[in-house]
Structures are given as C-alpha cells and as structure tokens.
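Example 4.3 (complexes with small molecules)
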Amino acid sequence: MHAAKCPHCHVRLGQFMYADACPHCHKELHDNTQPLTVSAKRDPLKTRAWPITAFFRMVAVIES
Ligand SMILES: [Zn+2]
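Answer. The structure with zinc ion bound is encoded below.
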C-alpha cells in the first residue's frame, strides 16, 4: 500500500504517491522504498534514494 499523505509532514502526495521521497519535506517514504520486489532488491535503497531526493529539492527551488 502507498500512503496518500507523507508520514512525516502529512502533505498530500498526489502524483508523488509512488515517489521514493516526499516532495515537500524530502524525507524518505518508507512505503515506497522498502524492497517489495526482486527488481527493488537489485537496486539498493541508498543508491537510488539520493538522486530522487536531489531532484525533488531542485523542483522545490524552481517552484518557489
Ligand atoms: Zn513530507
């Protein structure tokens, strides 16, 4: 199950429901980063979490 709201800041995730990190507070969304599938296990959490976090941080700067 994917949370409709961020568990950290409770912002509505909307199109970011399946993202690895919250677009608002940039904290990891554990519901999405837990290794639920084989493909996720082959793609370790730490190596894919940081570029996405950096991406959202960049988007937040652009939108502000
Ligand atoms: Zn958040």
